[in-house]
Amino acid sequence: MTIHVRAYAKLNLSLRVVNRRDDGFHEILSDVQTIDLADRLSFDVGGEGVRVENDLPIDGPDIAERAASALLRRKGVNGGVVIRVTKGIPAGAGLGGGSSDAAAVLAVLDRRMRPTLGRDVLCKIGAAIGSDVPLFLHGGRLRMGGRGECIERLSGIGARHFVVIVPPIHCDTAQIYARWDELADGESNRGAESPVLGENDLLQPALDVHPDLCSYNEAIGSAGGKFHGMSGSGSSFYAAFDDPQAAQHAYADLAKRLETAAIFLCRPTTEGHLEGEWT
C-alpha cells in the first residue's frame, strides 16, 4: 500500500541570532509557524534498501534518503522503502522544504517499522541531519532555541493568513550567516531577549549578499500586513493577516506587481505533516 503525506513549509515569524559557537554553528531564538504550502511524498515500504526519487536535481544523497537510512540504522532493521518527493516548497527560500521532507520520512517510517522510537528519539536523529528537522516533527507555532533543536510550543497563532513571496533568487544559508559574522563580529547586540514578530537578524546580511532582494523586501512591507518579514536566511518574504479579504487583496496586488516571483496565499497548520490521500 502506498502512503501519501504532505510535508509542510515553515515561516520564521522572528529570528534572532544569539551567537556563533566555537564549532562554527550559530545559536538562534526564533518564533516559527508551519504553513500549508507543502511538498508531497509517497512511500512504498518493503524490500531492501532506500531509494528516493526527487523531481529536483540533487548532488549526493537526498536529505530524505539520509533520514530514512539513519532511522533504519537506529532501529537495527533491514527493511526497505521507495520514497517519491514532489516539490511544492521552493528550494533555497528559507521555507524548510528539505528539513520538512526529512521529518515526514522519520515520522512515517517510525510508525510503519518496529520498534517504534517516538518523537523524542526522532528529534535527536533529525537534529543530526538538519537544524530545522525537529521543528517539523512538532509543527504548529513554536519557539526554537539552540541550533534549532530546543523546541517550545507557543499558544495561539501569529496570524490566520500569510502572503508569501519567493523571488527567483537562491540564498545559500552558509553565505548569509558568514555575512552576519562579518557584520556582528560573532556576537548579537540583543543576545537572547524575546524576539519581535517580523524581525530577522539575517535580513541585512541577505540584502548585502543579494541586493536584488531589496525590491521584494520593500514590496512585502507595502502589502499592509499586521507584521511582515523574511523567513530564515531568505529569499522568501511574508506578510501576516487576520482578515482573509485583506490577505486576498495583497496576494492579487503582489502577483500583478512581481511577475518574476512566485506568490502564495497560505494558512497556518498545527502539524508539521499530514498523512492521507492527496490529489
Low-confidence segments, ≥5 residues, pLDDT <50? none
Number of strands: 12
Which class of secondary structure composition applies to the elements? alpha+beta
The average pLDDT is 93
Span of the ends, CA to CA: 17 Å
Total of DSSP H or I helical runs spanning 4+ residues: 8
Taking the sheet with the most strands, its summary is: 8 strands, mixed
Question: What are the defining features of this structure?
Answer:
8-stranded mixed sheet; 4-stranded antiparallel sheet; alpha+beta; globular; 279 residues; Ribosomal Protein S5, domain 2; 8 helices
Describe the fold and architecture.
The protein has one domain (1-279): Ribosomal Protein S5, domain 2 (2-Layer Sandwich). It is α+β, with helices and mostly antiparallel strands and 279 residues long. It is globular and about 55 Å long. The protein is built from 8 helices and 12 strands. Helix 5 packs across helix 6. The relative contact order is 0.21. The strands form 2 sheets. Strands 1, 2, 3, 4, 5, 6, 7 and 12 form an 8-stranded mixed sheet that branches. The mean pLDDT is 93.
